[in-house]
Amino acid sequence: FPPGMLLGATWDQENVYSCAEALGREASAYRVDVLLGTPNVNLHRDPLNARLFEGYSEDPCLVAKLASQFAKGIQDQGVIANVKHFAANNQETERMGINEHIPVRALHELYFPGFKGCVQEGGVKTVMSAYNKINGKACTENQWLLTEMLRNQWGFKGFVMSDWGAVHDQVEAVKAGNDLTMPGPRSAQVLIDAVKSSRLSESILDKCIENFLEI
Fold this sequence. Notes:
Blueprint: H1 4-10, H2 13-29, E1 34-35, H3 60-75, E2 80-86, E3 99-100, H4 104-111, H5 113-120, E4 126-129, E5 133-134, E6 137-138, H6 143-153, E7 159-162, H7 170-176, H8 189-196, H9 202-214
Parallel strand pairs: 1-2, 2-4, 3-5, 4-7
Antiparallel strand pairs: 5-6
């Protein structure tokens, strides 16, 4: 299947949807439940980014219009799409933990539209949280990002999974709205201990489990 960069070059929503339908059918035939990192809506910012080919464009409007159709096409075949990497994971240098200083306006105008489009237009059911920090806070532990923006403002109803190895503090990630720590298996003991010590509310942990089970 063509990568995101080629799909972005088409400027063709119907063609992108048709491609996603075909990919969804094939994934379903192989009994795949979730297509990880599909679509990747991070903007083209740095040609040295090893995942640049997965992204659609440097233009946030084009990304939002096309990626939402890709998510919809996959999910119309009964397979779950997984939009990544939330948010602003646009470079390879120090990708695992760089602290990016980004004004809120720039987040809304540049780095959020692709994700917002996939949530509100594409109905995407899973979101992958990113490695990097935004304004001093790790994306996987960022309540403003994962709860205030994604769920409360955009109306996201699915579950959030981390990028592989992106969660450093499982308790803080759960509290922020990161439902699933990847990769697994990881011991649940740290969460059990946090509930027992009242560091983590059991109702918050229940909500993470509920988000996962509903999807």
